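Worked example 3 (structure in, sequence out).
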């Protein structure tokens, strides 16, 4: 007989006060998921998944890394094994993920979406596969049904400037859920690969309807796409960088660099960084003009395994934490924008936990009193979005900034079953504050601390984003 699921009503809540904070002030709040990698098409068309493997294992590099570590063949991960075979292999993996966040997430998601209250293992995997797959055929478990179950109010996807946003337009007709795009222009300044950049310019010319023959033309094309995104509900931009490059204006002649790119010439590493710096400065000023929020995800060391990159492509589980220098160039970039009062609301995420205090301190330099929490130290991200990582981020922000102004959690996920991560965060948050009360470090003022919790979990984000 399978062991009963360990996730009970007070999971992660170590004190009665923490329990009251969670159950009375956090649990039932709606979700604003302001950064994720969900498919707009899936949401707009209210897609119904055929199997639990399709919705739960496909594209989930967290699970893939665990399975590879356990010695499971790629056939059962990204290969041509059947969905049932893949799920059984995942079931065999789960008991070995103890103390990894996957162990908590797996059982929390099975419980919340499918009312499965036993521990997944190799023996019961086939039965659980059948139960979940059957439920996924019900209206309650269509894409919109799953989002409704979690009280999701806003979903902000991550979208390339070339995107037509057709599915966002289609979804705008669905009541009860806002599906909004986020402008993610990473490919537009990825000039370290000249061929890929030139290939990108061709469809960019197509969507803006003009030729791009100069750096000025290029910037005008990007601004045109920003305007288009704005017209279709976009109020956020996002950037994935190892660190933010910054150079003084006119260190190089950008127009000459661009002409060399058009000729197919390779740039030096310094020229690449300078080009990115100039494009980011321009984009940030555009965002300020539109009143958008800009996000910077910093510190990932991507595509480490070149053999597997050639075999499977990017975003398949071979990225890790980098140790890039962050503070100096980030400070100069933010100061450059602030010096002309063109620094818009900004969220900064770090992947290296060694940078927690750096980021928590940095945001205070540019909070100018114009907006509550104008510059945000973003939630624990990627490798850090587990209990320990969340606690460290919360503590760093509390020690150096104001936790009360924090805009809370997001999923950053490709899976529609990842929304219990908001519950996970809320439980961790309530437990941190509950322990402070138990230790005599905070007053047992339930009403006030409950307000702080509910603000962090929902109300701060609702006020911060101009949706």
């Amino acid at each position: 007989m399978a062991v009963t699921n360990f996730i009970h009503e007070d999971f992660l809540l170590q004190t009665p006060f923490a329990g009251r904070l969670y159950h009375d002030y956090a649990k039932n709040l709606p979700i604003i998921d302001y950064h994720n990698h969900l498919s707009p098409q899936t949401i707009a068309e209210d897609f119904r998944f055929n199997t639990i493997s399709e919705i739960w294992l496909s594209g989930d590099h967290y699970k893939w890394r665990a399975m590879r570590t356990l010695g499971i063949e790629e056939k059962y991960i990204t290969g041509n094994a059947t969905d049932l075979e893949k799920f059984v292999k995942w079931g065999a993996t789960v008991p070995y993920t103890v103390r990894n966040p996957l162990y908590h997430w797996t059982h929390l998601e099975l419980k919340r979406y499918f009312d499965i209250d036993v521990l997944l293992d190799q023996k019961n995997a086939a039965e659980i596969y059948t139960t979940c797959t059957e439920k996924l055929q019900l209206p309650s478990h269509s894409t919109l049904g799953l989002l409704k179950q979690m009280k999701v109010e806003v979903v902000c996807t991550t979208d390339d400037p070339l995107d037509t946003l057709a599915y966002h337009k289609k979804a705008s007709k669905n009541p009860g859920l806002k599906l909004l795009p986020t402008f993610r222009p990473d490919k537009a300044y990825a000039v370290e690969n000249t061929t890929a950049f030139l290939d990108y310019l061709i469809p960019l010319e197509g969507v803006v309807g003009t030729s791009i023959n100069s750096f000025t033309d290029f910037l005008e094309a990007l601004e045109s796409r920003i305007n288009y995104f704005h017209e279709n509900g976009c109020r956020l931009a996002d950037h994935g960088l190892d660190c933010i490059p910054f150079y003084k204006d006119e260190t190089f002649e950008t127009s000459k660099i661009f002409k060399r790119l058009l000729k197919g010439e390779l740039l030096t590493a310094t020229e690449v960084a300078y080009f990115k710096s100039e494009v980011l400065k321009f984009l940030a000023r555009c965002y300020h003009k539109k009143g958008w929020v800009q996000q910077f995800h910093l510190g990932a060391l991507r595509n480490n395994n070149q053999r597997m990159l050639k075999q499977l492509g990017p975003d398949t589980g071979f990225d890790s934490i980098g140790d890039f220098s962050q503070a100096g160039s980030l400070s100069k970039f933010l100061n450059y924008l602030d010096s002309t009062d063109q620094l818009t609301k900004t969220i900064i995420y770090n992947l290296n936990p060694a940078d927690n205090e750096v980021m928590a301190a940095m945001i205070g330099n540019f909070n100018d009193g114009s907006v509550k929490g104008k510059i945000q130290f973003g939630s624990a991200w990627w490798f850090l979005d587990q209990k320990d990582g969340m606690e460290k981020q919360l503590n760093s922000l509390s020690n150096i900034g104001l936790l009360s102004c924090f805009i809370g959690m997001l999923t950053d996920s490709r899976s529609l079953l990842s929304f219990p991560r908001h519950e996970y965060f809320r439980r961790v948050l309530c437990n941190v504050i509950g322990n402070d009360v138990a230790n005599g470090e905070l007053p047992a003022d339930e009403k006030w601390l409950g307000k702080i919790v509910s603000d962090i979990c929902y109300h701060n984000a609702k006020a911060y984003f101009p949706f």
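Notes: The beta strands are 31-33, 152-156, 178-180, 182-183, 236-241, 293-298, 300-301, 320-321, 345-350, 375-377. The longest strand covers residues 236-241.
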